[in-house]
Design brief:
alpha/beta; 6 helices; about 40% helix
């Protein structure tokens, strides 16, 4: 199976794996699965780190892509169409986060199951999002 992990899943997997359900941990650790991470997540983390909203302890934000590679996560390279096709995802009244919307669009366009605990993502299932947490 092919999965795209949300930004918080990457951080939790790296720093607080106890926050991830056993089912999801099993998926993330199964070598038969291909786990993707988007550069959008690294961009989001860099912005949060720089603004002081994210602490990585002794880890440098510049190490994050290398750490993802060590976990055998595959970098999902956005295509130009990903950026403009985000306009095809309806704006939901309670959800305008551009990082989340890009992850949702990438998951839909690449036929990936998005792993996220974010309950707001459920409303995009009607638009073709395959979502998994529990």
């Amino acid at each position: 199976m092919k999965y795209l992990i949300d930004t918080h899943v990457f951080i939790w997997f790296m720093m607080e794996p106890e926050k991830i359900t056993k089912k999801i941990l099993k998926i993330l650790c199964n070598e038969k699965n291909e786990i993707f991470i988007s550069p959008i997540s690294f961009w989001e983390l860099a912005i949060k780190w720089q603004s002081g909203k994210l602490s990585l302890g002794k880890i440098s934000v510049l190490q994050l892509p290398h750490i993802a590679e060590q976990y055998d996560f595959t970098l999902l390279t956005p295509q130009t169409y990903d950026y403009v096709s985000i306009s095809q995802i309806p704006l939901k009244e309670n959800h305008h986060d551009p990082f989340d919307r890009m992850l949702i669009q990438q998951a839909i366009r690449n036929d990936l199951i998005l792993i996220s605990k974010d309950e707001k993502f459920q409303q995009y299932q009607e638009n073709g999002l395959q979502l998994l947490w529990e």
